[in-house]
């Protein structure tokens, strides 16, 4: 699967200082993900650990996020998968 074949839902702010979103890929279906504000700052260049900055970094870093989602989507835990700084190259 390539990141071009993955659809991402609109991100939302969670109460745990993170951005939540879902992704759909043919063959693995829907998976839920969490992007902590700190990871958005460190890996996507968010100006600060806030909702506003993290949502902007999410939109600007969507290509990188798609690549990480493509690699992590194989996990079938049924739980929200947290994107960590180590997931980004």
How are the SSEs placed, and which strands pair?
Blueprint: E1 6-8, E2 12-13, E3 18-25, E4 29-36, H1 37-44, H2 51-60, H3 62-72, E5 81-82
Parallel strand pairs: 4-5
Antiparallel strand pairs: 1-3, 2-3, 3-4
Helix pairs in contact: 1-2
Structural notes for this entry:
The structure is a single chain. The protein has a single domain (3-87), classed as Shew3726-like (Double Stranded RNA Binding Domain). By secondary structure, the chain is an alpha+beta fold. The chain has helices at 37-44, 51-60, 62-72; strands at residues 6-8, 12-13, 18-25, 29-36, 81-82. α1 (37-44) crosses α2. The longest helix is centred in the C-terminal third of the chain and has 11 residues, at 62-72. The protein has three helices and five strands, in the order ββββαααβ. β3 (18-25) and β4 form a beta hairpin. Strands 1, 2, 3, 4 and 5 form a five-stranded mixed beta sheet that branches. The chain is 33% helix and 26% strand.
Question: Which key phrases capture this entry?
Answer:
single chain, 89 residues, alpha+beta, Double Stranded RNA Binding Domain, 5-stranded mixed sheet, 3 helices, globular
* Separate helix tally: 3
Tally of discrete structural domains? 1
**Portion of residues within helices:** 25-40%
Number of strands: 5
Terminal-residue CA separation: 18 Å
Mean pLDDT: 91
* CATH class (first level) name: Alpha Beta
Can you tell me the CATH superfamily? Shew3726-like
Low-confidence stretches: none
Strand content: 25-35%
Gyration radius from CA atoms, angstroms: 12 Å
Q: How do the helices and strands follow one another from N- to C-terminus?
A: EEEEHHHE
What is the architecture at the second tier of CATH?
Answer: 2-Layer Sandwich
The largest β sheet comes out as:
5 strands, mixed
What structural class do you assign from the helix and strand content? alpha+beta
Please state the oligomeric state of the protein chains shown.
single chain
Choose one word for the global shape. globular
From the 3D structure, determine the CATH topology: Double Stranded RNA Binding Domain
């Amino acid at each position: 699967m390539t990141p071009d074949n993955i659809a991402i839902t609109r991100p939302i702010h969670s109460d745990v200082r993170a951005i939540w979103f879902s992704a759909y890929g043919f063959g693995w279906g829907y998976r839920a993900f969490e992007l902590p504000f700190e990871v958005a700052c460190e890996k996507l260049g968010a100006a600060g650990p806030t909702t506003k900055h993290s949502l902007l970094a999410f939109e600007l870093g969507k290509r990188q996020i798609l690549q990480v989602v493509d690699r992590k989507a194989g996990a079938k835990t049924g739980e929200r998968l947290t994107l960590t700084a180590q997931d980004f190259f």
